[in-house]
Design goal:
The chain is α+β, with helices and mostly antiparallel strands. The protein has five helices and nine strands.
Length: about 150
């Protein structure tokens, strides 16, 4: 797991509109919100909370990216169903999640199903300035703490 002060591994992933997004090409503060799976209860609540906080993130000039192991097509349906306008990136295979907060193997008791651990990182200038990772996929991130870290 990465910690505050670590160099943030660069990555390029496909978003829910089939556009490639490279971390290093984004300017300013970037919030990376890893979530285990689209259309699951806690993940829906988390991504909708980020959606509802977008005005505040915009004031703080922060880009929000949701990242899961779901396909771009599942992420697109998830975004459309929930009115999510920030990019949802497909880390199909979990390689980026493994570099950041880690993964759950055999997630939800499904053999060979790997899902990202619920985690939030803030990256600025290629460095991690905030890190939160939960071993409990049912635990939501501390939203106000994330906002304070961006201020």
């Amino acid at each position: 797991m990465l910690t505050v002060g670590s160099s943030a591994p660069d990555f390029e992933l496909t978003d829910h509109n089939l556009k490639r997004v490279r971390l290093s090409s984004l300017k300013g503060k970037v919030v990376l919100a890893f979530y285990p799976g689209a259309f699951t209860g806690v993940c829906t609540k988390e991504m909708c909370t980020f959606r509802d906080m977008m005005a505040r993130f915009n004031e703080l000039e922060a880009t929000v990216l949701g990242i899961s192991v779901d396909t771009p097509f599942a992420n697109k349906a998830f975004a459309e169903h929930n009115g999510i306008e920030f990019s949802l990136l497909s880390d199909f295979g979990g390689e980026v999640a493994k570099q950041y907060g880690g993964v759950h193997t055999d997630f939800a008791g499904v053999p060979n199903y790997t899902a990202a651990k619920r985690a939030v990182f803030i990256v600025e200038g290629g460095k991690v300035t905030y890190a939160w990772v939960s071993e409990d996929p049912g635990k939501e991130p501390p939203y106000e703490e994330i906002v304070k870290a961006l201020e």
